[in-house]
Amino acid sequence: MEMLSGAEMVVRSLIDQGVKQVFGYPGGAVLDIYDALHTVGGIDHVLVRHEQAAVHMADGLARATGDVGVVLVTSGPGATNAITGIATAYMDSIPLVILSGQVATSLIGYDAFQECDMVGISRPVVKHSFLVKQTEDIPLVLKKAFWLAASGRPGPVVVDLPKDILNPAKKNAVCLAGDGQYALLQSHNIRT
């Protein structure tokens, strides 16, 4: 059994999916994921100068290797800057998973600083969009996102991650299940 933050769950889930590289540009809403990329290790981050470039680079990787490309962008303008690249991937049937930061769940819908409806904005140019509202949903949502991106007619999938569910100060007891997914253990089921 391990204690992992939501951000660490994201990175471990990416590793479970065979991800070797992530393309992105840091921002406040995803800094916890950047910290987890460093502490967990195993994934190279390619720093870009603009979020649109991150999506195009992940697109190029997916075209060249057949793997699902992964993008990491922050909330607000970081997420909206990625839309052109996402639309390109959608039109060309390129499998991508775009991890976008979001304001804390309690602030969604209140026009908080750098809040944007990434699920709604991306809807016309993705196969599916997820807004993760609970930390324990991270591994399953990411597994679904990778499956959707690569199955049938491939295409991009957005996973919107509110800042509070990534919080490194909040550790969750998890264990590696037989299928490579993390199962969150409810506190009343943990025996010490």
Question: How would you characterize the overall build of this protein?
Answer:
Helix 1 (6-16) packs across helix 2 (31-40) and helix 1 runs parallel beside helix 7 (138-150). The chain has helices at residues 6-16, 31-40, 51-65, 77-81, 83-91, 118-122, 138-150, and strands at residues 2-4, 21-24, 44-47, 69-73, 96-102, 128-131, 156-162, 172-176, 182-184. The chain is built from seven helices and nine strands, in the order βαβαβαβααβαβαβββ. It is of the alpha/beta class and 192 residues long. The N and C termini lie close together (11 Å). The protein has a single domain, classed as Rossmann fold (3-Layer(aba) Sandwich). The longest helix has 15 residues, at 51-65. A hairpin with a 5-residue loop joins strand 8 (172-176) and strand 9.
Question: What structural keywords apply?
Answer:
single chain; alpha/beta; Rossmann fold; 6-stranded parallel beta sheet; 7 helices; 35% helix
Topology order in helix (H) and strand (E) letters: EHEHEHEHHEHEHEEE
| Share in β-strands | 15-25%
The structural class is: alpha/beta
Number of strands: 9
Shape category: globular
Q: Report how far the terminal alpha carbons are from each other.
A: 11 Å
Q: Identify the CATH class.
A: Alpha Beta
- How many domains in all? 1
Detail the poorly predicted runs.
Answer: 185-192
Residues in helix, %: 25-40%
Looking at the overall shape, the CATH architecture is 3-Layer(aba) Sandwich
What would you give as the CATH superfamily? Thiamin diphosphate (ThDP)-binding fold, Pyr/PP domains
